[in-house]
Specification:
five-stranded antiparallel beta sheet; globular
Length: about 100
């Protein structure tokens, strides 16, 4: 089971994913940019990095781990809740990330 760290960007509430650049964290709107943990130990390390970054730089809030799988060369959340968070609100599938997603 592969995992990535997800959170919400504090400035606008958009979903972001942790990108590990050595000991420094950054956040991306694109799930495919996320650093993937293949083990529980690595996932715990990434979560600790995300939490520390969220507490120190205040760019993201409430980081937590989500399960992902690679499908068609892209990362996809395995849980329906995270699919919705990844693609955005479900009320208008013709707008935003849902309109841009190939499987929408």
């Amino acid at each position: 089971m592969s995992q990535v760290v997800s959170a919400n960007r504090l400035s606008d509430g958009l979903v972001v994913y942790l990108c590990n650049e050595g000991a420094r964290a950054s956040w991306s709107l694109d799930l495919d940019d996320a650093t993937v943990a293949a083990t529980d130990e690595r996932a715990a390390e990434l979560l600790a990095l995300g939490v520390a970054d969220a507490e120190s730089r205040h760019e993201a809030v409430d980081p937590y781990l989500i399960e992902v799988a690679e499908k068609g060369g892209r990362l996809r959340p395995t849980k329906y809740r995270e699919v919705i968070r990844c693609l955005g609100p479900t009320v208008r599938s013709d707008l935003g990330k849902q309109a841009e997603a190939p499987e929408a």
